[in-house]
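Task 17 of the worksheet. Students: predict the tertiary structure of the chain below and write it out as structure tokens. Keep your answer in the requested format; marks are given for formatting as well as content.
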Amino acid sequence: MYLQLRNWTSTLALSFLSISVPAAANPLFESDETLEVTLEAPLKTLVKERSDVDYLDGTIRYADEIGVEKSFDVKLRTRGRFRLRKSTCLFPPIRLNFPKGQVEDSVFEGQDKLKLITHCNNKRPQYEQLVLREYLAYRILESLTDKSLSSRLLKITYIDSESDQDPLVKYGFVIEDDDDVAARTNLTSLDSIGLNYRDLDAKQTNLVNVYQYLIGNTDYSIIRGPADDKCCHNSIPLSNGDTAFPVPYDFDFSGIVDARYAAPNPKFKIRKVTQRLYRGRCSNNAILPSTLAYFQSKKGEIYGLVDKLVDLDQKNRQKLTRYLDSFYEDISSDKEVEKNFIKKCS
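Model answer:
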């Protein structure tokens, strides 16, 4: 057989264990506890105008570990593409810009600009569950490799400074800045129009492609960007000078999130985003056994991340568990791997 899955030993996974996550490089991402914050800003203008250029002035507050409230100025604007459209999201994603002088000795120390993933829709509670599901996607990747964007779940009290409406309390999460993940991993960001697969680290490429299969995501490219844009699509290329390492992000079109607005990549013959398709390289199949063995070794940790999301409702928790079950069934035998990976590779 091509793959002797039943005879894998722990040594096959050891080569991947060296890429497990180290301690975070700054206070915000040192903890996986939910951080409660209050964000006060002209939200009516933000939502109506949706400028991804002009910043608005706001304030952000939180209580530190001993209960002392900290408050400082913050600038914010909208960001993104698909989720920025009013037809997609009633509440857009946000970019936060922190004044360095004010955030010293706070949980936001060292932060400059952060992407905030928001709840998309104020009126439908299921959209908050989607935030938790996308946060889970980031946390799974963090558990697999340090070459990933750190994330922190927030419980945000939004106060609109332009109205007297009651505050809105919703989950959101922030992700690490591109430059920070490069610095943390001792790599540099590549400013490139495109890459060749031979430029990419084979282990990281395999890990990313199997991870994208796990979460059911086809909305990415690790070698090309969108039309008239630099590399890559929903992936950051980092380099050690000789080799590039893809760092994926933006998982709202994945099956593990299963957002109402999400649709499969039209390039592929799949009917819905929950349908998995392996996009790995056939040239990397020699190390596929060790890649899949590594995912097997992380199974308990990945399921544990679902358990830790305490505010997932029972329906979403069961869906996520079943979706993970189906991935591990897909790598459970030679026959399944041949069908789902070997015959589908590019």
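Marker's comment: The longest strand covers residues 69-78. The longest helix spans residues 126-144.
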